[in-house]
C-alpha cells in the first residue's frame, strides 16, 4: 500500500484541496501540520523550500497544483475526456489567479495601501470572480463543473468559496448557483464526514 504524508502549516490554505481529494477517495494519509515558528528548521527538507509538499513512499514532491492534478488523475477526479480536463484546468487556474490576489491583500504591510487593496478586492475582485464561477456552474446541468461527477475543479471551487465566505460578507450576492454548488459538495457523504472532524484553524 502506498504511503502518503502531507506537509503544510496548521491551516487549510494551499493544502486543503489535496486533503479533500484524500477524503473523497477514502485514501489514508498522514497530515503533518507545521507551526509557523518551526518552519525555518523544516524549510531545508521541502522541495523548492515551499509548502505544501507530499511524500509518496518516501519521495518528496512539491507544488500544490501539480499534486492536486496528479492525485485527481490517479483516483478518477479529473474528468473523462480531454475537454473535461481542459475545463477543469481552466477553472483551477482561475481559482489560483484569484488566490494570488487575495494573498497579496492579506500580506500587505502598509495600512493605507492594504485598505485600498481590500476595498478593490471586496467591491470588484470578489464579485467579478463569483460571477465568472456562476457562469461555469450554470454551464453544466449536472450541478458539477465538468462531466457528471465531482472533480478536482469542484473541490477547488468549494475550497476557495468556503474560505471566502468565512472571511468576507455577502460573497454569494452574484452567485446563487455557486452557493448551491458549495452546499452540494459539502453534502457529499465523504466530504461531509471529513468536514465534521476537520480541525478548526485561522486560515
Automatic annotation (TrEMBL):
Gene3D superfamilies, per database record: 1.20.1050.10, Glutaredoxin
Family of the protein in this entry: Belongs to the GST superfamily.
Residue span(s) of domain GST N-terminal: 2-79
Domain named GST C-terminal: residues: 81-203
Keywords associated with the record: Eye lens protein
Pfam families to which the protein is assigned, alphabetical: GST_C_3 (PF14497), GST_N (PF02798)
Domain of life: Eukaryota
Coiled-coil residues: none
Protein name: S-crystallin SL11
One MF annotation (Gene Ontology) recorded for this entry: glutathione transferase activity
InterPro entries (alphabetical): Glutathione-S-Trfase_C-like (IPR010987), Glutathione-S-Trfase_C_sf (IPR036282), Glutathione_S-Trfase (IPR040079), Glutathione_S-Trfase_N (IPR004045), GST_C (IPR004046), GST_superfamily (IPR050213), Thioredoxin-like_sf (IPR036249)
Gene Ontology annotations of biological process type: glutathione metabolic process
PROSITE patterns xref list: GST_CTER (PS50405), GST_NTER (PS50404)
Amino acid at each position: 500500500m502506498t504511503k502518503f504524508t502531507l506537509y503544510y502549516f496548521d491551516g487549510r490554505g494551499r493544502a486543503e484541496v489535496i486533503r479533500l481529494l484524500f477524503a473523497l477517495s477514502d485514501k489514508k494519509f498522514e497530515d503533518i501540520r507545521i507551526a509557523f515558528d518551526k518552519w525555518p528548521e523544516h524549510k531545508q527538507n521541502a522541495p523548492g523550500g515551499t509548502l505544501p509538499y507530499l511524500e509518496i513512499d518516501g519521495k518528496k514532491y512539491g507544488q500544490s497544483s501539480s499534486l492536486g492534478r496528479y492525485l485527481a488523475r490517479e483516483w478518477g477526479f479529473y474528468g473523462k475526456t480531454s475537454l473535461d480536463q481542459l475545463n477543469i484546468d481552466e477553472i483551477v487556474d482561475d481559482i489560483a489567479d484569484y488566490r494570488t490576489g487575495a494573498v497579496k491583500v492579506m500580506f500587505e504591510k502598509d495600512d493605507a495601501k492594504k485598505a485600498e487593496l481590500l476595498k478593490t478586492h471586496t467591491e470588484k475582485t470578489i464579485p467579478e470572480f463569483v460571477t465568472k464561477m456562476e457562469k461555469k456552474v450554470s454551464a453544466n446541468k449536472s450541478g458539477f463543473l465538468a462531466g457528471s461527477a465531482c472533480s478536482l475543479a469542484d473541490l477547488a471551487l468549494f475550497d476557495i468559496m468556503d474560505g471566502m465566505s468565512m472571511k468576507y460578507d455577502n460573497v454569494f450576492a452574484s452567485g446563487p448557483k455557486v452557493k448551491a454548488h458549495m452546499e452540494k459538495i459539502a453534502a457529499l457523504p465523504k466530504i461531509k464526514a471529513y468536514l465534521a472532524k476537520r480541525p478548526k484553524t485561522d486560515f
